[in-house]
Amino acid sequence: MRLETDSLGAVEVPEDRYWGAQTARALEHFPVAAQRLRWPRAVIRAFGQLKQAAALAHLELGELPQPIAAAIAQAAAEVADGRFDDEFPLGVYQSGSGTQTHMNANEVIAHRANEILGCALGSAGPVHPNDHVNRGQSTNDVFPSVMHLAIAAELRAALLPALDTLGATLQAQARAHAELVKVGRTHLQDAAPITLGQEFDTWAAQLEQARAALAAGVDALGALALGGTAVGTGLNAHPRLAALCVRELASRSGLPLREAPHKAALLAAHDTVVAVSAALRTLAMALLKIVNDVRWLASGPRCGLGELVLPANEPGSSIMPGKVNPTQCEALAMVCVRVFGNDATVAFAGSQGNFQLNAYKPLMLHAVLESIELLAGGCDAFERYCARGIEPDRKRIAAYLERDLMLVTALSPHIGYEAAARIAHDAQAGDLSLRDAALASGLIDADTFDRLADALAMARPSPSTS
Hints:
Blueprint: E1 2-6, E2 9-13, H1 21-29, H2 41-61, H3 66-80, H4 99-116, H5 129-133, H6 139-176, E3 181-186, E4 189-195, H7 196-220, E5 223-224, H8 241-253, E6 258-259, H9 263-268, H10 271-297, E7 308-309, H11 327-350, H12 361-385, E8 391-392, H13 394-402, H14 412-415, H15 417-429, H16 434-441, H17 446-452, H18 455-459
Parallel strand pairs: 5-6
Antiparallel strand pairs: 1-2, 3-4, 7-8
Helix pairs in contact: 1-4, 2-3, 2-4, 2-6, 2-8, 3-4, 6-7, 6-12, 7-10, 10-11, 10-12, 11-12, 15-16
């Protein structure tokens, strides 16, 4: 162990660690933080990127001497690249501002910078975690900026590409089955015909709508609180610091970053993060609708709907030989339910700001990043192991369509709603085909019935009359 000091006194720190006194105190006082919910790579990367940008900005402003600024920038870049991930032992349950994790980053970067300058690990100087690494900054503006950076980066790098791939697969299925007409269903009852292509296309449209909201979220997250320091007033920060940091971060990350015009609002509340979480929930709702449709349409294989055949990825039962289950649908459904829970957490936490600070920042950040990770991985697996391999059971689809009483809808404009309803009721009561019941009514002849009750023509949109 080595002995380090902070503003409260001396603390023992493991001699091989880059973190220091304040991190050691946090490990002692927040034991739950170290148990399960440690920080994802995206958070540590964002801290490193931000601290590198701040060091370079302070060098340009003449606020730090060149050797110290350069050493901090190098150390922070190494943190961003993942070299020191094991030096971040804390997790979510700590100060609601994220102070302990912020100081963890400052200490790791300071100790590594001192090494770069030729000092032994654990040396007290020349680089100080507060005076140099954290110059012109506060946890209260740094952590919200890290939240925005990490969430936006993960949306762009992981979730949006996964949605693009799944959407493209659904659209390819829609094109492949554009002419395969089938029974539509409303209220879980037989309805007018549609094509299987239209069903896939509807799912793709849901995904695209959810994706658009998340893409807008990336842009909204581009507003950073940097420069607001403790309460949004910019105390102790150079007036140009935020602009220079944002310029550097935008250049290195490729994200649409900008200096927030109302920094105090981003410290006191996290409405943008809440909105992104809501967009993730909306995506989860769409995905849950899709996978439930798929598993119902694939139910069977002999005693369910059985219109779709899913890839057989693994045995489905430990006791029933030959059983295969829609496991990818079930896995993604559970992901969606977890995302609903995360969103409830984020929404409640977002409502709990007091005066100049919302003190639920770490919890909100972790919940949103978990939702992104789960949705990205779930969509990728569903696309890879289910969606691209879905095949229609054409024989089953045709058999259902032949018995669809709601083809009678096409007769209604010609013989009237009441007469058409009587034909449908007679067919059901007498276990007749719709065609036989219609001809037995004497209200329509065979040629007219065949022309009107053309299922594919019924499924196609009517030509515009405007």
